[in-house]
Design a protein that fits this description.
The chain has about 240 residues and is an alpha/beta fold. It has one domain: Spore Coat Polysaccharide Biosynthesis Protein SpsA, Chain A (Alpha-Beta Complex), CATH 3.90.550. About 40% of the residues lie in helices and about 20% in strands. The protein contains eight helices and nine strands. Helix 1 runs parallel beside helix 2, helix 5 packs parallel to helix 8 and helix 7 packs parallel to helix 8.
């Protein structure tokens, strides 16, 4: 791989997962930016300890309160661009995204502009999900594909790798979505601008510790937002 890579890692109450995850990410030659939303369980303080231990590899962005996944990524992307990173990855902090896939992402991004970690292409899948969770996720991707006319099979996943040029050109200042909708919106904007998008098969594991942050509001936002994307509305 040529160029520097950074994982943007939004956190809220991930004290049990943070240190082991970051150690695995660093072992693959990828730097980490933790974006913590004032976690009451001490995640932010743990992140500061890791920054002190790895000052050139780990950075921390503290936010004043829980502001949402989409804005956490946007704030993280801005810092990554300002720091000069060539590749910027999204990743969950709960081990549902296996850091072992990072080399494959970085290999694939050499021939693409955006690589989507995909559960719904050959070789991908989910582990320890019930039928309802799988239905919601699959249905959300299919629904979005049909409304937006996109060819990609997994539009709602949050394990991705961007070339910096994509983030520079998709107008981060106007992104307003969170959750599923945020993931759909960024892929749609990249597709509209003609960037090369590929899917990398991954296995998605149910989180090891803590509870899922999925909610009915996140699903509903995704269903409504795709129509706004389709007709060019950004409010």
């Amino acid at each position: 791989m040529t160029g520097r890579a950074l994982v943007v890692l939004p956190t809220y109450n991930e004290a049990d997962n943070l240190s082991p995850l970051i150690q695995q990410v660093l072992a693959h030659g990828v730097d980490v930016l933790v974006v913590d939303d004032a976690s009451p369980d001490g995640t932010g303080e743990l992140a500061e300890g890791l920054r002190a231990k790895h000052p050139s590899r780990v950075d921390v962005l503290h936010r004043s309160r829980k502001l949402g996944l989409g804005t956490a990524y946007v704030d993280g992307f801005r810092r990554a661009l300002a720091a000069g990173y060539d590749y910027v990855l999204e990743m969950d902090c709960d081990f549902s995204h296996d850091p072992g896939y990072l080399p494959a992402f970085l290999e694939r991004i050499q021939q693409a502009d955006l690589v989507l970690g995909s559960r719904y292409v050959k070789g991908g899948g989910t582990v320890n999900w019930n039928a309802f969770r799988r239905f919601i996720s699959l249905g959300g991707s299919l629904y979005s594909r049909l409304v937006l006319g996109l060819p990609y099979r997994d539009l709602t996943g949050g394990f991705k790798c961007f070339r910096r040029q994509v983030l520079e050109q998709i107008d981060l200042d106007t992104v307003r979505s969170n959750g599923y909708a945020f993931q759909i919106e960024l892929t749609y904007r990249a597709h509209q601008r003609g960037f090369r998008i590929e899917e990398l098969p991954i296995l998605f594991h149910e989180r090891r510790v803590g509870s899922s942050k999925m909610s009915r509001a996140i699903v509903l936002e995704g269903m409504l937002r795709v129509w706004q994307f389709r007709f060019g509305r950004r409010d």
